[in-house]
Request: fold
Amino acid sequence: MGHVTVIKRVPLDFVYSLGVVWEGYINPYLPQRCPVCEGTGYNLETKEVNDSFYSWCNDITQDEMQALMVAGRPNHFDIKSDTTVDEINKWHQQEVKFSTDYDVIDRSILVKARAKRLCVYGICVSCNKGCTNGDSQKAKKWQKQGPPIGEGYQLWEFVDGEGSPFTPVFTNTKMVIDWYFEKWGIKIDIPLD
Reply:
């Protein structure tokens, strides 16, 4: 669907957080991101290792490099069997500098290796790989429900079908348009009466 902007009719006293998807557009029966592990699927200790990844990824240890090699992952470094972890770290520190050449698969391997070495590795006991389980039957039957209809006017934006208000409620469309033009610095030289 992409991005669409529309003026919706809502009650004049309608209050809802701007930029937040309207709750009636969110299917509560679909799997949701786990609030405990924040979608990582890790226990809290392993999540801390994952969250700190960029502070240590250019200084990996021998066991972490070995985990990459066992997984067949270091092919983008052109690593040979006699390549040392010091050479890898030096390359990362000098060539990559403020970035990392590790992709998401490498990261998960390195996080798991480090967390195991620290004896903290584990998965989140509150979810299923980062998501709460949904109810597929109820999800299929669920229907969107828009905000209440009223006498006011409010600009809403929809991104891939999920809508959220992004202006205050106004008493007429001219006020909505004026607010929009002023916010984005658009000048018009024709009357909109």
In short: The chain has two domains: 3-28+142-184, 33-132.
